[in-house]
# Entry
Amino acid sequence: MAPSQTLAESRARCVGSPSMDDAIRGAVGAAAVSSSACGLSDQPSQPVRFRTRGDFVAILDRFGLSLVAAAQPNRLIFLGAVDGQLTTNTTLVSNPMGLAVDAGRLAVATAHSILVFGNASRLAPLYPARPDYYDAYFLPRTIHLTGGCRTHDIVFARHAIIAANAIFSCICRIDGGSHFTPLWRPSFISALRAEDRCHLNGFTGQNEELCYVTALAATDTPWGWRKDLYTSGVLIDARRNTILRSDLCMPHSPRLVGDDLYLLNGGKGEVLRIDRGTGESIVTTRLPGFVHGLCHHGGVLFVGMSQERISRSNSDAPPVAGQHPSLVAGIAAIDAKSGNILGAVEFDGVTEVFDIQPLSGVRRAGMQSLVAGDEYDGVEAADAGFWMKKTDHTPEAAVSGNYQIRLDIKL
# Structure
């Protein structure tokens, strides 16, 4: 096992600078993107600015990979690379949380719903406002209304979605038949109630079997996990429904990478590698942020970093906040075997990263927002696709059709 490495220790190797400020000043690939104006009360107040360092862009470029991140305030962020340059796009989504990706689909969990988008890959390069730019463009397909479940980690399961249901303390199935169907709950949860008893937030599986689950405490009382935030987080072996660890600091995002189990010890800014038999762990990497959101591609771990929530007082701040002058919001790229930090992207205009997923074979991705204004709507039929320009929304215009068909392709 390699010794743990801090982000500060990696800066000299990544960018030849011993300090975060120097790294930011010397960063490459800075970019800025603002979300479309929509007049909603939760509209982000400033654009996102991106600062990259180390090999972050080169890694995306080499893999032909994009990342999609659920971020606050109210955005999905797409990051890719072409010819050594960072590509970026942001889309307004209200309170995005867990993400799921499979072939041609992207799902986004929010407080009361799960939004499913499809990749209109043949329409993407024909986007009228930016022709020959996008190689993936996600259009809305389905909305599952979940009530106030606040689902966190999610994965696709054929035509359904499996989700960590934080409010009802269970792993559930969401398929449109009801708001949710409970599948599994921790042994210490005595009843299914809308009481967020343990803040069950993450899970991972293998071969369609649920393997590990994280929660913030093994409590069975309404919002009981809030009493001891930073020393009672649990990792559960779901196959035996037994607790492997009960001393974690706000654990999130358990992930199986081959036979290795990784876990984010969120409140301490740590990436842990877990012994699946004993629950013992080694800290592979320390980061200057609350860590939340973990994905893997080609031997590289991508880890989300967040600043401290404004809603918490100084006395409630997690341990990582006392270890750094300020916390960073962004994504770190980490060598899975050694724990060495290969590069990072840091965000201005973003406070939290909730989840990250890889989009293989995608370099420039976009998405049609359900809540933001956009000049064009993408529509796919069984054997054709269209971009339609919005012209007027008055009743008089609607009589003759308030859209103009601009582009037509055969699928």
Summary: The longest strand covers residues 136-145. The domain at 5-374 is CATH 2.120.10.30 (Neuraminidase). The CA atoms of residues 29 and 52 lie 6 Å apart. Residues 1-42, 394-405 have pLDDT under 50 and may be disordered.
